[in-house]
Amino acid sequence: MPIVEYKNGMFSDIKPEEGLKKALSLSRGEVISIITDSGLKGRGGAGFPCGTKWNLAASASDEEKYIICNADEGEPGTFKDRVLLKEYPNLLFEGLTIGGYAIGAKKGILYLRGEYTYLLKGLLQVLEERRKNNLLGEKILGKDGFNFEIEIRMGSGAYICGEETALIESLEGQRGEPRNRPPFPVNTGFMGHPTSVNNCETLVLSARILAKGADYFKSFGTPKSTGTKLLSVSGDCKKPGVYELPFGVTIKELLKIVDGEDAKAVQIGGASGFCIPKKDFSRKIAYEDVSTGGSVIVFGEKRDMLDVAINFAEFFVEESCGQCTPCRFGTVEILKGLKNLKKGDLSLSMLKELLSLGKTMQLASKCGLGQSAPNAFISIVENFPDEVLGREEV
Amino acid sequence: MFSYEKEKLSEDIVSIVNKYGKNRTSLLPILQSVQEKHHFISETAIQEIADLLGIHPVEVYGVATFYSFLNPDQKAVFKIRLCQTISCEMQGKEKIKNVLENELGIKFGETTKDNRFSLEFVNCLGMCDQGPALLVNQKVYTKVTPEKVKEIIDECKSQFSSHFLSKEE
What we know:
By secondary structure, chain A is α/β, with parallel strands linked by helices. Chain A contains 16 helices and nine strands. Chain A has three domains: 216 residues, 3-Layer(aba) Sandwich (Rossmann fold), CATH 3.40.50; 72 residues, Ubiquitin-like (UB roll); 84 residues, Up-down Bundle (de novo design (two linked rop proteins)), CATH 1.20.1440. In chain A, a hairpin with a 5-residue loop joins strand 7 and strand 8. The longest helix of chain A is centred in the C-terminal third of the chain and has 18 residues. By secondary structure, chain B is α+β, with helices and mostly antiparallel strands. Chain B folds into two domains: 64 residues, Arc Repressor Mutant, subunit A (Orthogonal Bundle); 91 residues, Glutaredoxin. Chain B has seven helices and four strands. In chain B, helix 1 crosses helix 3.
């Protein structure tokens, strides 16, 4: 099922390679300044400005540079990249090529999660066609000095590899354990060379921005969160799927579109995101309000929020790479606590301790996984005290 | 392992390593290929790969065990992986779990004695809008119903019989 597009949005009126042709008619610096001007921020969830990232990678002094498309989409409830990879592969490779041109990379790598291995064959075919059409290889579209190749590398079922430095470790044949940052990949990335790691959606949008112009992109969204965002909606709603919507859309408006108005809560941003209760449905989806990499999970009246919290906690226990102590121990303790809460066997003072442990994890974990692992737990306990506290002993 | 099996494994590993190149960055693709061809990564395979890449076997073991899809303990020909994440759970994953366990006579986390099937849970397969979802090796099945489970398993079993038929011919 393709994307439910926003009217006249960024996916309307697609002409093949329009963005790439435009990019190659400009200098590298001009391409970067268009992306910077558009205000495009990383769509994987962290929201780092794409133009700044490209500029840092472009100005790093090294002959060898890389651009990596992060297709290790593992956040629970996110499936927008799957749809992009399946329905818009050319647009994705176009964006990756534009990024390669902008930062001066000769090689792009698509890191595809192992769970999506069934998409590999189709993607390789598209790459082969692009080689035939001079959209890859040497002197792309006749542009002197621009040689670019794309390789696809597979993940093998590790959520943590969506973190950019863990992804690079994995590409280098190591365990996917995040590195210390700084140095950032834009300076010291794949094999020690400057590397820009971008989300699939970011790259697709960069191609569309070059085709339609930065102003067109900026006409959507809010001043701090420009453009449209792909939202993967699942859970208790009648019309799950991938929706393109401008940033600034309220949760209430979104629920109306997906036919899930009976919801009592919505999890925005997947397991690492926050649980928003009904009273806050007027909040906006944007980097400055409720931020998300695209995951929206709707919970109906009958859902037990404690079960939801337990499910997320189990997820983090399994996916923590085990490298740093706050995350390795914290995730296990939170799960234990939640299970005791469900059994009616957790004192309030212990719960308070666990909430404070959560805050410690947010501060002291090495990477984004550990820092965001307690989010769902904390927001569910804080927003649904009547529901989760004082369970009868089982 | 029979000696002819060991020879076949070594031969395959040499050709796989030559294909991807004798360097550390190729380790993941090498492990993935060995897994695909031989269904699992044995200790012998780990030693051979380490020798060819010139690294310690513990390095190879460390990498293989880090990634849930490369687990060296996972020997089944058909690895059935059911998504346990929230959206699939809300769409009836528990029912599918029970049907799978009853149909194969094993629990999740186990492998059938003939090494044909294993059952395990995985985290989000990215099919949240079409759950419950499961993977059989690399193939994805969505909106799985109890009746569909039987079809999926029969489909796998039929591959065994066709394999044996072609051997007999």
